[in-house]
Amino acid sequence: MSFARLSRSARESVSGLPRAFWWLWASTLVNRLGAFVATFMTLYLTLERGYSASFAGLVAALHGLGGVVSSLGAGVMADRLGRRPTMLVAQVSTAGSVALLGFMEHPAAIAAVALLVGMTSNASRPAVQAMMADIVRPEDRVRAFALNYWAINLGFAVSSTAAGLIAEYSYLAGFLGEAALTLLCAVLVFVKLPESRPEPVKGAEGAAEDGSRIGLGGVLRDGRFMGVVGLSFLISLIYTQGSVGLPVAMGSAGFSPGEYGLVIAVNGVLIVALQLPVTRFIEHRDPRRLLVVSALLVGYGFALTAFAGPLWAYALTVCVWTLAEIVNAPTQTELVVRLSPVQGRGRYQGVYTMSWAVASLVAPLMSGFVIDRYGAGWLWATTGVLGTVAGAGYWFLMRGLPGRAEDRGASGGAPAAGTAPAPVAAAPTAQAPAEA
Fold it and tell me: Is the per-residue pLDDT at 419 higher than 50?
């Protein structure tokens, strides 16, 4: 491919998106550039503080539990208070709690603040996804979600490298650095991003007869959407094995932590290199087929680990399930938006985010139990089964799903910066009375 063609493809990938989206994208990148705690929490507790691996695992679990707790509450806040206030509260709270964690010494205090960090750091995600759906035209959403996912991985790739160097100098500097970057993210949101929450309109999609917003109970009663949440949980269980099951299996096979680091780095490198061109290829294709194929690829990609011997073979399996991740992430996020009524986007995104948070709790327990009792081979066989179940689930669940808004002839442009978009009809979904 010529340089001119690559340049044209890059321009097409980023063109046509509203200015507010790019400020939201920039805030995501800045946020992920400071991801120190999630990367080095275990090493900090065991090497710097001298605690046991069991205590470090407990703290990591509490951090994940905080994310589960905050997902639903943050989704409700995004719909009730607005996307912008929710992000500001979450980011300022995250900065304060991360800085505080760096000074904690008593085990109970460390555990309690880690729970708080998990709650606050996860709270902005439903609001970010809801705002992105508000400000981006339906036909551009897959591309927008892919660009956001690319920023997340680019930021994490840079931060994980920098965090390693910072940790050699001072772990406290890492905590304070993450707090500072999170505050910078809040400043970007405060200065550059207008509120995007659609105002309740009587008779609008997702609103009750009096124009109030759909309640959390209505989300939980939406059968098709909760089916997607369940499938997302299965996919998340598989993906999380890259950070919990794979290092254990490679360690048992005689590989060093450094060799595992090289193998897992393939994941980030491929996402940064391929996310945008692959998204250009898939963004107007049938999402049902994309989700089925990606579910099978991730399941069988991890299942192939059972047959990996040399280091390059492990890296090859990572290539397979990373390709699935590149396809699945923007496609599934766009599907959630299509199933979400305009007036309930925050709550829907909160429930969807919770599926990943719960998986981050269950996956370590699952991998530890299966490996200890039956061996790593059975864990990889289990991922293949889960991928097959998820693929079949997507195939049946998405039968009769209306096409994307642009496929049905909908029109609409992104709102100008500084203005809130008018409600736009979303894909039909279960209606429910408004709730508190």
Answer: no
